[in-house]
Amino acid sequence: MEVLKSPLSASQKGKLISAGYTSINLLSSVSPSHLALELKISEAEALEILKTVSDGSRSESTSTSCTIVKGAQSAWDMLQEEETLVRITTSSSDFDNILGGGISCKEVTEIGGVPGIGKTQLGIQLAVNVQIPFDYGGLGGKAIYIDTEGSFMVERALQIAEACGDDMAEYSRLYRKGFHSHEVKIQPKDFLENIFYFRVCSYTEQIALINYLDKFITDHKDVKVVIIDSITFHFRQDFDDMALRTRLLGGMALKLMKLARKFGVAVVVLNQVTTKYSDGSFHLALALGDSWSHASTNRIILHWNGNERYAYIDKSPSLRSASAPYSVTGKGIRDSPSNNKRIKNM
Ligand SMILES: Nc1ncnc2c1ncn2[C@@H]1O[C@H](COP(=O)(O)OP(=O)(O)OP(=O)(O)O)[C@@H](O)[C@H]1O
């Protein structure tokens, strides 16, 4: 059902539509805290909106708790789920720390940043790191890499894979507390074989591929990360019909959230950030911000601070807002060379 036809108040409809929630379906896997954050409203109001739309009628909203409760988790379940959330290391201990251990599976994480900040480097690093064996504190999984811009470079992936293979034992000893009793040496070739690469050249191809992922992951159960580099590229041009674009992005966002939950995979969407001037100063703005902003559970912004690269948690229902330095080296993503516990909580 379209939000416009729902029994919500005009102001609630306006807030939802301007945040990209054009259809009630898009709200199906959104938590009250997430919605409150997106719409800049109180959690109580967000809960009221979710109750109203889930019941389909404001007049019956007093009895909607049953509808909500049917699919609800207890707070204890949520805590346990949070604690058992499997994470993929970024190869920077500082970066991992602000993420609670790495990029979480079962969720959609958006990584935004200006050109050259290292989004693709991080994407490749995650496609490699997801393969770190369980004995080394990793997931022993495989990766899907969806390249919309032609950014993926296989020589660079090989370089990062070689370094990961070489450093795995030490890395696991230092940060991941793996319990390897015997050396497992993954060959760079094996790392590359476990990255399923898809090049998409139009938004229609991108939507078709995302619809196909359910089947692909069903057939390849060991896929643990899906990286889309970048999610908005084909949607930034050739669109006269903005409402259609918003609907397509919303549908894709919903599909990705469902995939993350159904298969327990980390969905990582990379996105461009541009600099906009308003209120007398420059601000970072995510590409297609308004029509896309509700799509991810977590959002991380990569940015320059002087000559140093920093990551900060821009949005997350469970992580504290924090920032940490990282660097891009020949080996891939690593701690900043001046790493001396400068993680800032904000
Ligand atoms: N082999 C390497 N050794 C050291 N640094 C490297 C290496 N390869 C890439 N880099 C660094 O990574 C940067 C490019 O990062 P990347 O391509 O991930 O940026 P991006 O954020 O994806 O940009 P865009 O939005 O334009 O795609 C280079 O400018 C360089 O600083």
Automatic annotation (TrEMBL):
Pfam families: Rad51
CDD domains xrefs: Rad51C
Places the protein is found: Nucleus
Domain annotation RecA family profile: ranges: 84-273
Spans traversing the lipid bilayer: none
Record keywords, A-Z: ATP-binding, DNA damage, DNA recombination, DNA repair, DNA-binding, Nucleotide-binding, Nucleus
Keyword Coiled coil: no
GO biological process: meiotic DNA recombinase assembly; reciprocal meiotic recombination
Main location group: nucleus
One MF annotation (Gene Ontology) recorded for this entry: crossover junction DNA endonuclease activity
Statement: the UniProt record of this protein carries the keyword Cell cycle: no
Cellular compartments per GO CC: Rad51B-Rad51C-Rad51D-XRCC2 complex; Rad51C-XRCC3 complex; replication fork
Chain residue ranges for the region called Disordered: 322-346
InterPro entries cross-referenced by the UniProt entry: DNA_recomb/repair_RecA-like (IPR016467), HR_Repair_Mediator (IPR052093), P-loop_NTPase (IPR027417), Rad51_C (IPR013632), RecA_ATP-bd (IPR020588)
Family to which this protein belongs: Belongs to the RecA family. RAD51 subfamily.
Biological role stated in the UniProt entry: Involved in the homologous recombination repair (HRR) pathway of double-stranded DNA breaks arising during DNA replication or induced by DNA-damaging agents.
Protein name (database record): DNA repair protein RAD51 homolog 3
